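Tokens help. One example:
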Amino acid sequence: MKKLAVMCGIAVLSLSGCASIMSGRTQTMTFESTPELSNITILNKAGKKVHVGQAPATVSLKRSSGFFVPEKYTVVFEKEGYETKTINISAHVNGWYVGNLLFGGVLGLLIIDPATGAMYSLSTKDTNVVLNDLKKENIQANTQSLTIVSTTELPKEVLQKAKPIELKTQ
């Protein structure tokens, strides 16, 4: 009976991939923006829309687009009156995929994890985006500033370079 249990355990391990067991086909990611409620569009590398909504959004994304083919996503954040921002999400080899060398065997390494896409992980950095206010930028670009400083606060070297302003009256 113990031999049968051990053999079943070995069979299960040899027919599965480490990354498939630990990570799965998809990865859940959260996208946030400041200000909140910006429109968010996620496109896969084929250019197909896989999600349209508002941030903050939690989305389940496929890790691959085919056998041994990592997926890539373009995420566009838009809000009226704010700058549009785009981020790219790329996939890299999942650490659990290497576990096939010890536990998953050749089937997990060459067939199961590549077929499920679990051999990849999606990058999660830069999923919180700050959108710049276009109105604020326009106001700052069209204004000039004047700084008034007391001559008692200036170092002598700077004061020597200063030129008096001549006022012309008409």
